Amino acid sequence: MRKTEILLRKILRHGFQFFIVVLLVQCQPAEKNFNPILEISKNVDFSYAGYKHGEAEFNLKPKGWPVLNVVDFGAFPNDGKDDITAIQSAVDSAGKLNGAVVFFPPGRFDFDVHTQHEFVRVHHSNIVLLGSGEGIDGTMLLDHTPSTWPDMNKKWLAGMYPSFFAVGPDTARIMNFQFQPEFKLSTVKPAPVNSSKIVVTDTDNLVKGRTYLITMRDTGTALTKALTFPLEALAANYRSADDEHAYRFRQLITIADIRNDTVMLEEPLLWTLQSEFHPMLWALPEILDNVAIAGFHLKTKWNEPFWHHKNPEHDNGWDHIKLAYTVNTEIFNIRHDNASTAVKVHNCKNVTVRGSQITGNPGHNGFVVGGFSSRILVKNCKGGKQLHTFSMQGHVTGTVFFNSYSDLPSAIDLHGGLMVNNLFDNIYGPTMKNGGHPNNTPPAHARGLVIWNWYPGPFEPYKSRIQNVLVDLQTIPGVGIYGLQGLFQQPVFVSHQDSVISGQYKSKWGNVAFKKPSISSLYQYQMKQRSGKNAIY
To answer: Least packed by Cβ within 10 Å: which of 154, 316, 359, 502?
Structure first.
């Protein structure tokens, strides 16, 4: 622990807060006429996040879609019998219709009563799984048995078996995507950040409306250093470029139109494409589109004090929903009761998780975005007391956590990786306590992290200690923090190189302004500027 932080905590504990001024002498004032909104908007427009870019909500009963009742497939509520097989039959039948609603009437449906590692798999596009609500008169799904994994060195693999739903292509077809040559489609020519078009060398296999992956590859550490400037002490995974880890920048894009060798994009680029880093366009083996899960109370029988990394059950044994390789998908109005992870989004694009809450037994993870997911939106959610409450990891880009709250103690968690240009906007309750393997941190987040109006509670979740110093800029280089105040008016600070920041600060490491910005929400502001619409609460 740094000497400055120790001294600061002693001062706060004894109430001598007037000494704080002495500790802050190294802080630099922000430049005059500095406009954070204009500065951020030069590099990223966060308003493209979420289902249909946040401009519409999922229609739960589309015209012409038949409604399949799970009761008609043998899933009877409140009978105490395992319903997974019957529900799976209803989902598979809906998948063959290219557009259908699977409806769950009120009552309790049971999962893993006498089995383990069973759950419902959604392998088709154009499906709605619709419960009767998360309230007392709605639809409850109850999981009786946790998932486990025999190798204690890989406890996280218990998460391969969620308690309730896994949405995405058949795993056997997507696990083979490891940047093999057969998935390469075209070289991409240099293009500036925020560009909505790219020029490619080959358009023969590109299809309008389909989603692809853009990458840049490090041939040493030059790209990594650009993504993490001015950080120099890099974790082990970023010191070489000899395998798939060399693809440091990754962004999912969807093609809006193709005009000769020019490809128009539905969302702009989130980083400048440079020829020396070999920009490449990749096909994905398969991706699902247009899926929704809504109106459920998901509950497990987990009921013991959470112990971080105790065993597979505690880490991932009671995960609820997993999404992989899906686009234009919504998860909403879900109550997650007793979850080791509520929702995990992996290698997805334009997914919205909204109006959901975590209750019951505190667990490991809350709402997690990982892999090379792009433009994900988590909004209007309550994160409970999960250790890693609002979490990102991997190569996430353009993701927004908006207008969300968590109980105390809880945390924003940047779990390591070369994530760029992500936003936490109007977040109440969590401190920042980053986890992750030391091979992936530092950095906890690469350049472009923005935190806009953050109201942290006083406790960090690992040991429930007082946490006044929230962020070390050396773990998240280039961060912009605008509007930072304690949830209970407790003093909060940011640290950098053994000095403590409590006011305005600007350097190559980032920008900090504790004063509440004139624009209450950056996400709302950018949405209004781009589309003329307010973001839907």
So the answer is: 154
Q: In the block, which residue shows the tokens 């969300």?
A: 404
Model confidence band, residue 28 (pLDDT cutoffs 50, 70, 90): very low
Sign of the C-alpha dihedral computed for residues 236, 239, 242 and 243 taken in this order: positive
Which single residue is written with the structure tokens 């039948």? 93
pLDDT higher than 80, residue 25: no
For the beta carbon of residue 28, count every other beta carbon within 10 angstroms. Answer: 14
Cβ-based burial of 506 (10 A; exposed 0-12, middle 13-18, buried ≥19): middle
Residue 180 token pair: 């093999």
Tokens of 37: 């909104």
CA atoms within a 13 Å half-sphere pointing along the CA-CB vector of 106: 5
Considering Cα of 155, then 344, then 93, then 102, what sign does the dihedral take?
A: positive
Residue 533 exposed, middle or buried by CB count within 10 Å (0-12, 13-18, 19+): middle
Please give the share of the chain, as a percent, with pLDDT higher than 70: 92
Q: Alpha-carbon distance 232 to 477, whole Å?
A: 10
- Of 516, 505, 512, 535, give the one whose Cα is nearest residue 27: 505
**Cα–Cα distance, 42 to 480 (Å, whole number):** 14
Computed over every residue of the chain, the mean pLDDT equals 91
Q: What are the backbone dihedrals phi and psi of residue 200, each rounded to the nearest 5 degrees, phi first?
A: -120, 160
Residue 122 forms beta bridges with which residues?
167
CB 329 within 8 A of CB 376: no
Q: Which residues pair with 296 in a beta bridge?
A: 334
Q: What is the pLDDT of residue 319?
A: 98
Average pLDDT over residues 83-101: 97
Give the C-alpha separation, 77 to 74, whole Å: 10
Q: How many CA atoms lie within 13 A of 444 on its CB side?
A: 19
Are 289 and 327 in contact, with CB atoms under 8 Å apart?
yes
Q: Phi/psi class of residue 324: alpha, beta or left (left: φ > 0; alpha: ψ in -120 to 50)? A: beta
pLDDT at position 127: 98
Asked if residues 506 and 11 have their Cβ atoms less than 8 Å apart, the reply is no
Tell me how far apart the alpha carbons of residues 66 and 96 are, in angstroms, rounded to a whole number.
12
Question: Residue 176 — pLDDT band, cuts 50, 70, 90?
Answer: low
Q: What is the pLDDT of residues 108-145, one digit of tens each?
A: 999 999 998 999 999 999 999 999 999 999 999 999 99
What are 236-265's pLDDT values in tens digits? 888 877 677 889 999 999 999 999 999 999
**Phi, psi for 264 (deg, rounded to 5):** -85, 135
Helix (H, G, I), strand (E, B) or coil at 451: strand
- The residues pairing with 429 across neighbouring beta strands, listed in sequence order, are 456
Residues whose CB falls within 8 Å of the CB of residue 533, separated by 6 or more in sequence, listed in order = 55, 527
pLDDT at 533: 83
3-state class (DSSP) for residue 281: strand
Q: Where are the alpha helices (DSSP H) in 79-132?
A: 84-95
Q: Are 448 and 44 in contact (CB under 8 A)?
A: yes
* DSSP assigned state of 453: E
Instruction: Provide the phi-psi class of 510: left if phi over 0, else alpha when psi is between -120 and 50, else beta.
Output: left
Polymer length in residues for the chain: 537
